[in-house]
Amino acid sequence: MELSEYVQKGFQMLADPGSFDSNAFTLLLRAAFQSLLDAQADEAVLDHPDLKHIDPVVLKHCHTAAATYILEAGKHRVDKSTLSTYLEDCKFDQERVELFCTEYQNNKNSLEILLGSIGRSLPHITDVSWRLEYQIKTNQLHKMYRPAYLVTLNVENADSQTYPKISFSCNMEQLQDLVGKLKDASKSLERATQL
Amino acid sequence: MLLDLSEEHKEHLAFLPQVDSAVVAEFGRIAVEFLRRGSNPKVYEGAARKLNVSSDTVQHGVEGLTYLLTESSKLMISELDFQDSVFVLGFSEELNKLLLQLYLDNRKEIRTILSELAPDLPSYHSLEWRLDVQLASRSLRQQIKPAVTIKLHLNHNGSQNTNVLQTDPATLLHLVQQLEQALEEMKTNHCRRVVRNIK
Lengths: 195, 199
Fold this sequence. Notes:
Chain B: This is COMM domain containing 2. Chain B: It comes from Otolemur garnettii. The structure holds 2 protein chains of 2 kinds. Chain A is an alpha+beta fold. Chain A contains 6 helices and 3 strands, in the order H-H-H-H-H-E-E-E-H. In chain A, a hairpin with an 8-residue loop joins strand 2 (about 145-155) and strand 3. Chain A is elongated, with a radius of gyration of 27 Å. The two termini of chain A are about 30 Å apart. By secondary structure, chain B is of the alpha+beta class. Chain B has 2 domains: about 5-115, no CATH class; about 120-165, no CATH class. Chain B has helices spanning about 5-15, 20-35, 40-50, 55-75, 80-85, 95-115, 170-185, 190-195; strands spanning about 125-135, 145-155, 160-165. The two termini of chain B are about 15 Å apart. The chains are: A alpha+beta, B alpha+beta. Chains A and B meet through helix 3, helix 5, strand 1, strand 2 and strand 3 of A and helix 6, strand 1, strand 2, strand 3 and helix 7 of B.
């Protein structure tokens, strides 16, 4: 995990009890996680009375450094020992190391979900709806008397945030074919998970 | 239910008794072929020369026969009704039998062709699937994210579209369950009653 000098410098400042007392440290740490994980968070996350006494430039630097580190750590799925080692290298005292690790552990799942959801993917099927009809006649063909299905797949496009629908008609045999193939896929999935 | 043949139609069909049965059978074959692939005027000219008549006459004869076959197939009229409808044309016993046979032999295929006219929605053609596991991405390493990638082939207005889609295992099971329910629906009493009673 390569971290820039900027991040390192920010952490060194954060480690210094002279610049950040215990309370300020905790607040800044929480603010960093909040900025990343809370969809509603904005710049106001650093607007706490107990942080007012700190130079805003320093505040922003440390906040950014912490957020950057958290993302990198999340991306590489670092374990507790890697985390502690890095923080100790930045001259964090034991109390602050523990605090950081605890906060990280608490937010780990949300962080991983967030990171996992970023990226390109194929349109994703979210649901299906169907309609069964009995066809009697058209203007071209009378006395049809056959069942037909209309299937609609609800699809989600993560990047463009669009939700197109794919609709198609099929007769009984075709639907059986479709279901058969999907069942094969799910059996295959079951087998794969047992390996 | 009897077919209602217009005067013009009857005139066109009047050509048929003037040629022998082999020719009528041949016209029948041409008519069905034209329904399958579209008409080809050159065929009329060739036939016209051989029979020593104008190509218009041949064309009308074939078209008349085509219309007779498609209308009968569309309405799915019974043998008896077909015979009675054709009877008014005053053809010979032999010709009537030939026309009936033409109808019965080609009815199923003609109905299939007619059903392909103006298909409204894309229809299912086939489906391919593949099991994938995402191991990492630029933003997150060491993942185990199973997914099913699906290639759905649909036919629409003669051309084939392919949709490449993906889904997760939970949704896949949901899809299977929902669609199996759809299939089961046809076996319910309600549907069976409808099918039995609408004829």
